[in-house]
Amino acid sequence: MIEIPQRLTLCSNLLGSPCGSPIFLILKYITMKTIALIDADSLMYYEMGADTLENALEGINTRIFAMLNEVNADEYTGFLTIGKCFRYNVAETVGYKHNRSGSMKPPIFYAIKAYMQQTPLEFTYVEGLEADDCVAVYANVLREQGHKVVICSPDKDVLQQLPGNHYNYQKQEWVETTEKQAKDFLWKQTLMGDSTDGIPGIPGLGPKTADKIIDTLNSEFTYNYEGIVIEKYIEKFGLKDGICRFTETFNLVYLLRTPEEVLKYTGSSLPDLRLNVIYDFTVDESTD
């Protein structure tokens, strides 16, 4: 008995694929598919310091193959952030990501970005959204269709604000987030903002105070998170400004979840999604 090791073949479409036979199609679609959605922005930063473009692209491919194999995906796609997202229009108190440096990135960074949008990867973007919004929205859409979805991302917002079993490809570890944990994280972010993205929240209210407020709500079985958080904003800024600042902060930290929210915040409908197929097969050959 000779066992040929498992092989992953990435195919951007079925036509012309060496493994696009009807038999493989039948085998693939008689079981529920596992779809990997990759928040791909960080991949460019991980590899932009490579000595050569060839080494950078090899690093990208290695990382993608590794995560797809780890999550046992049948299909996949990746998302990039291209252009400004809707949050730049939402931010009024201070500019969204105003604290980020505007320094030029090395040419390899832009070459990687272009490479990931080409065949065979064909990673995509949605105008007006960030990559983490994309994985959140499409994950919900695909789950409603009955698919198992694994979100692959190193971003704390994605890993902790979205319920599910996710894969952190930076640390190469699984992160399981419950509905309650995701809810707690969202409201803690709304209270204290997000310094990484330059979102102020309530000045002087840090992680420990936010934890204490949310933990108190949990211990008292109070489920009116929104009302309590608004009260904290009103205490700090007054009625009118407090409500305005709360609304602004919430809209900045909240990851969109539905096509309806995409239309509301961007003015555009959610595009159809094209998935790449992964063929995962083992061949056994018997010899006398």
Summarize the model shown.
The chain is an alpha/beta fold and 288 residues long. It has helices at 22-29, 41-47, 53-71, 87-90, 107-116, 131-144, 156-161, 179-192, 207-219, 225-237, 239-253, 259-266, and strands spanning 2-3, 7-11, 34-39, 75-79, 148-152, 164-168, 173-177, 276-281, 284-285.
Structural notes for this entry:
This protein has 288 residues and is an alpha/beta fold. The chain has two domains: 169 residues, 3-Layer(aba) Sandwich (Rossmann fold), CATH 3.40.50; 73 residues, DNA polymerase, domain 1. 45% of the residues lie in helices and 14% in strands. The protein is built from twelve helices and nine strands. The strands form three sheets. The protein has a five-stranded mixed beta sheet, with helices on both faces. Strands 1-9 form a two-stranded antiparallel sheet. A two-stranded antiparallel sheet has the order 6-7. A hairpin with a 4-residue loop joins strand 6 and strand 7. Helix 3 crosses helix 5. The chain is globular.
Give me the oligomer status.
single chain
Main beta-sheet strand count, sense and barrel state: 5 strands, mixed
Give the number of helices: 12
Give, in spatial order, the strands making up the sheet with the most strands. Answer: 2-8-4-3-5
Distance between the termini: 9 Å
Provide the gyration radius in Å: 22 Å
Tell me the helix content.
40-55%
The CATH homology group name of the largest domain: 5'-nuclease
* Class by SSE composition: alpha/beta
Sequence of secondary-structure elements:
EEHEHHEHHHEHEEHHHHHEE
User: Based on DSSP secondary structure assignment, what is the total number of beta strands?
Assistant: 9
Principal-axis shape equals globular
Overall domain count = 2
**Unreliable segments of 5+ consecutive residues:** 1-30
Average pLDDT, to the nearest integer? 86
- Portion of residues in beta strands equals 5-15%
Which second-level CATH architecture of the largest domain applies?
A: 3-Layer(aba) Sandwich
Please write the CATH class name of the largest domain: Alpha Beta
CATH topology of the largest domain: Rossmann fold
